[in-house]
Amino acid sequence: MEVIFLGTGGYHPNERRHTAGVAIPEARIVFDAGTSAFRIPKVMPPGELNVFLSHAHLDHVCGLTYLLAPLLTGYFTSCRLYGTAATLQAVRTHLFAEPIFPILPGFEFCNLEDVISCGDCVITSRSMVHPGGSMAFRLERNSKVLAYVTDTTANESYVDWIRGVDLLIHECSFRDPDEKWCQPTGHSHTSAVAQLALAANVQQLYLTHIDPRDLTDDPVDLDQARQIFPKTVVAEDLLVVRL
């Protein structure tokens, strides 16, 4: 199973990173649709598409507008949007408000349930602490498990939910010196995420939702993370991970 990081930045795109998106082409699934969503048709074969939205903040949903052309041309024969009722309502009434984007693509709006079967995948979701709310997702397919956790402040309240996963994709918006911003913004810092991965005994940790203001090659202090959890990687746009 290939996991493709479409966008690994948070808040806004920069020259290096687009905002949130992770694709599993074999499963026809995408998590979030930020500015990276223009890449979805490039990595996803034609046919049906399933998009799971963590929440309605613009850096996670604005790319839904980019799916209009692939749906109109028939490249995607259908597109199911999964999200909470509040997220789907926000997308309908705000992102696709007529003065902003006058054509609503042919989405099928699907409320999240505790467990969803999507082809040969089983997806569970969990509510996270974030301003306005956010959902994390856990996907199981052919004995492999990944967890996608974005826009939350890392803590051990969900350690059992991610325990032992083959791949933990977790947001890491701040370095440790900026920890003071985590609680007000609902985001995470380096050591807290690494400690969570260690406590949960995950196999691999990939950090995403990187601060877009930091264009350096080490935006999260990777050495610090690896001192706690050695199997840590900072994800880059279009990185492919095979499980």
TrEMBL record:
GO terms for molecular function: 3'-tRNA processing endoribonuclease activity. It comes from the Bacteria. Residues 16-209 form the Metallo-beta-lactamase domain. The keyword Hydrolase applies. Its EC number is 3.1.26.11. Keywords: Hydrolase. Signal peptide: none annotated. This is Ribonuclease Z.
